[in-house]
Amino acid sequence: MKNRFVLIFTVLISGFSAAAIADIYVGIGVGSATYKVDLGADGNFEETGTGTKLYTGYTFNKYFAAEVAAYNFAEASVGALELNPGGGPAIVGGAASMKGAGVYAVGMYPVSKKVNLMAKLGALSWNADLSANGNSKTNSGTDAAYGLAVSYAFTKQVLAGAEGESFNTDNPELSMFSIGFRFDFK
Prior knowledge:
The chain is mainly beta. It has helices at 2-14, 18-21; strands at residues 24-38, 44-61, 64-78, 81-82, 89-91, 94-110, 115-132, 135-153, 158-167, 173-184. The two termini are 29 Å apart.
């Protein structure tokens, strides 16, 4: 997964002239990743964990950009889970962890010189490790991903942003809200 991100980043910047590099940006985000996990006969759980992402992109104009991102959604776990309230714990322990890489088309609307609204649509390639009561399995896939964001520019190069993202992964289901910083090479 990490190698894919490095390869994509290298390809993005290798073919650009110095003027084009001025339109590249990099960023980092940290936030809350919410998992909904189906463990089959062992039950279900919904839990949050800390998620991180690194991303880079190329701005074509003030309305459109292309972006790639690498995610580490960390681990969410529960110590006991009840299938039926009052029925006792069905799961003694359950956990889910997930990593992924995404590629997006980003639409932007500059509200002012400092505030920008963004919407993105793309795909996430992901791997998940699931465990319950000592039983482990993995799941992976490539699914649709989309998000909404707002950013505030402190300077022409340094921006802070908040973003909500949703991923159409089947098991576990996942969404993430993050805050972070972006650096524009202008």
